[in-house]
Amino acid sequence: MIRKTGIGVSPGVAIAQVVVIDNEEFDIPERHVSVDHAQGEIDRLKEAIVVSQEEILDLQRRTVERIGTEAARIFDFHLGLLDDKVLFQKFNDTITSGNVTAEYAVATVLRAYAKEFLSMPQYLAERVKDVYDIEKRLLRNLTGQSRQSLSHLDRDVAVVAHDMTPSQTAGMDREHIKGIATDAGGATSHTAIVARALGIPAVVGLNDITAAATGGEMTIIIDGTRGQVIVDPDQDTLREFEQIARQQDEFVHSLDALRKLPAITKDGHEISLFGNIEFPEEVDTVMNKGGYGIGLYRTEFLFLGADTEPSEEDHYRAYCKVIKACGDKPVIIRTLDLGADKYTQSRARNPERNPFLGCRSIRFCLRNIPIFKRQIRAILRASVHGDVQMLFPLVTNLTELRQAKSLVRDVAEDLEEEGLAHRPDLPIGIMVEVPSAALQADAFAKEVDFFSIGTNDLVQYTLAVDRGNENVASLFTAAHPAVLRLIREVIRTGLQHEVPVSLCGEIAGDPTYTLLLLGLGLRRFSCTPSAIPEIKKVVRSITIQQSLEVARQVSRFDTDQEITNYLRTVTRKIIPEVFGD
Ligand code: PEP
Ligand code: MG
């Protein structure tokens, strides 16, 4: 039995059999399979070899067309290696003698092979790069197979991986995947956000869970509420966690009673609780959990889920689905926020050295006008069906906002000329998620209809802490006084200019922050759908007077630790159940 502590990012307890997904970019740990499964591993390898051969032949054909026959010869070595009977025998022997996975056999055999080349004359030593190339390709096809198999499972499993992209997480079989545990990742990484959206318990930032979770039919416990993972638990531990899972289920069910009740404080202040969504299907969860509408629709998942760019009609259909499911409730559609951790650099045409500070979000849209216009057209057309608002992400200066608004006007004129039904004057807001926007909120307030504070990025850019990096996860906190000062200023500016302010970062769904945010004057929260009942419970248990006192106390502290401890203590006193007590 091995216990590990990481960052709990999606609550709940999962107990299931492990499926480990290796990653070709990282060391492949020695992982065993049962004797009966060894042949299956050899078959998988054969399949990966065939796919790799097809890919290389295709690459070779295209190279001949573009550069010529001579250049295309470099692929002969790759093809020869894949066809090498002696090499295949080595893979075969490694798998059967040690009962290891095909991935492990490929990595060990090819690395040993590459070493042999290193001791040869210079012109042959160059071949090492080709061997590594083949290793990567084979591993990618092998791990691709295992990822693919996650989309149609016939039994319940928990996935253990180095890391997962948001679209891999989104593409998983929701019925059978009961939990996720990863080496990498932080609390607000998009993989974490998607796991929460799907209601799958998840723990990230475990560093080496992929090495710990070896063995064939192994059970794992993933406690996403406490950030704990137990590999191969003993009977007592299993019973203990089965009991915890039952208690958590009871708590979640006890919150169902709040569904139809308003989010109103004990002294009568009405609070708007919206849900964040990534996929149209999530609207039902928001409504079932008692949300008032959609406070953030992350439309980039339309792009991430497909290999090609969505057409205007794809956008339009998705938006109409969300709008219809919401009835007369508000829907805030955020324009494309592509880049950084949502779009792996390996997929990018020109990989960036520093993608979080690169051409992402609104910057990408303003440089790819046809893509941006297609989306804006679809939003304007869909808005005739409901209460729609448009939100621009990662705005850092007024020029970006003005350019984006001018594109909206252009698109509206085009639609008018084409005689297509649309709403030209829908409310437009910006995400406040970089310090420059927060500090210039007064200037922005004159040109927008609303603000939405995105604390996931605001924390990242204020504290210089990558939101998805487990090595700096302990530094990532919205309780830092500098972050809180920015949040307070944006809310204050909004009130002063009568510009509604909502907050849609992950802290909107974290009960630790609810009292403080109310005390800072926030009245609109948009959070992951599963957190809506809990936040409603906190709102209904307190008074605005109490929240003002909490905000006053917090302003006296200088460190995030003092603030977090204080917030947990006051919230726990009022409503202990929210921390699983
Ligand atoms: C944020 O940054 O807080 C936010 C809500 O946007 P995203 O998490 O999609 O970057
Ligand atoms: Mg953001």
Can you offer a commentary on this structure?
There is one protein chain. This protein is an alpha/beta fold. The chain has three domains: 126 residues, Phosphohistidine domain (Glucose Oxidase, domain 1), CATH 3.50.30.10; 109 residues, PtsI, HPr-binding domain (Enzyme I, Chain A, domain 2, Orthogonal Bundle), CATH 1.10.274.10; 312 residues, Phosphoenolpyruvate-binding domains (TIM Barrel), CATH 3.20.20. Helix content is 49%, strand content 13%. It has 25 helices and 16 strands. The strands form two sheets. An eight-stranded mixed sheet has the order 1-8-7-3-4-5-6-2. An eight-stranded parallel barrel has the order 9-10-11-12-13-14-15-16, surrounded by four helices. Helix 17 links the parallel strand 12 and strand 13. The model has no long low-confidence stretch (mean pLDDT 91). The structure holds phosphoenolpyruvate and magnesium ion. Magnesium ion binds next to helix 20.
